[in-house]
Amino acid sequence: MNIRIDILRRATAEAPPWRQSVPFETERENTTVAAALNELNSGGFRDIHGEPVEPIRWDCACLQKKCGACAMVINGKPCLACDTVLKTVAKKGIVTLEPLRKFPVVADLMVDRSILLENLALMKIWAEKEIVMTDRASVEAYDASRCLQCGCCLEVCPNFCPGDDFFGAAGFVPTSRLLASMTGEEQQRVCAAYASHAYEGCGKSLSCAKICPAGIDIEHLLLRTNAQMFRRKHDKM
């Protein structure tokens, strides 16, 4: 299998971006984008102009669809490199790789996604005492717990802009995990954060639900969490 991999490169955050096209050949049918990047970084490759391919900077950790670190834009769609097979995404033998667009670029395909954790900290998404879950709450909490914080949902969200008050699905999915079983003042606190940083900014386009690499039922979690928020408001009246 012969594929040309086009990579949007940048030496540093301040450097101008440029594209490098690299011929890539593999005999393995299920070679992933992550495997291809690792092979390119092993050395000895040259681009279509005969220039050497310097090490490509990108994030990776588990390479098993568990951590979300390798999220990038592949042929125009945010995906996990470890979960994307080259032959399934190649268009006319070409695969384009770009960094996520809604986060500051560090270098090449590596971006700074620290705002994801900062947003969760602002929402105070944690339990201050032990939570006892019902069976139903446990099922919903487990689904929400599979969020990788990869940022793919935010890449396609028309309402998310880094620095704004709306934190997108990466904010409200972890919130729904806690609200599934919280009660009393703790639930009130998290509901208020959810209303300010999730409900009020969401346009309900559900682009996030279609792109989630973990397959989380985001629409169901959104409906359930909205219902809990309104029920909480009604109980206060």
Keywords:
9 helices, 237 residues, two-stranded antiparallel ribbon, Fumarate Reductase Iron-sulfur Protein, Chain B, domain 2, Ubiquitin-like (UB roll), 2 domains, single chain, five-stranded mixed sheet, alpha+beta
Oligomer description? single chain
Q: What is the topology, as strand order, of the major beta sheet?
A: 2-1-5-3-4
Report the helical percentage. 25-40%
Q: Tell me the Rg in angstroms.
A: 20 Å
Strand content: 5-15%
Describe the main β-sheet briefly: 5 strands, mixed
Number of distinct helices: 9
Residue windows where pLDDT falls under 50 for at least 5 positions: none
Number of folding domains?
Answer: 2
Specify the CATH homologous superfamily of the largest domain: Alpha-helical ferredoxin
Backbone shape? elongated
Ends: how far apart? 65 Å
Return the CATH topology of the largest domain: Fumarate Reductase Iron-sulfur Protein, Chain B, domain 2
Q: How many strand elements?
A: 7
CATH class of the largest domain: Mainly Alpha
Secondary structure blueprint with pairings:
Blueprint: E1 2-9, E2 18-25, H1 33-40, E3 71-74, E4 77-80, H2 86-89, E5 94-98, E6 105-107, E7 110-111, H3 114-123, H4 135-145, H5 152-156, H6 169-179, H7 184-197, H8 207-211, H9 218-236
Parallel strand pairs: 1-5
Antiparallel strand pairs: 1-2, 3-4, 3-5, 6-7
Helix pairs in contact: 4-6, 6-7, 6-9
Structural account:
The protein is α+β, with helices and mostly antiparallel strands and 237 residues long. It folds into 2 domains: 2-111, Roll (Ubiquitin-like (UB roll)), CATH 3.10.20; 114-236, Orthogonal Bundle (Fumarate Reductase Iron-sulfur Protein, Chain B, domain 2). Helix content is 37%, strand content 14%. It has 9 helices and 7 strands. It has helices spanning 33-40, 86-89, 114-123, 135-145, 152-156, 169-179, 184-197, 207-211, 218-236; strands spanning 2-9, 18-25, 71-74, 77-80, 94-98, 105-107, 110-111. It has a 5-stranded mixed sheet. Strands 6-7 form a two-stranded antiparallel sheet. β1 (2-9) and β2 (18-25) form a beta hairpin. α4 (135-145) packs antiparallel against α6, α6 (169-179) packs antiparallel against α7 (184-197) and α6 (169-179) crosses α9 (218-236). The model has no long low-confidence stretch (mean pLDDT 90).
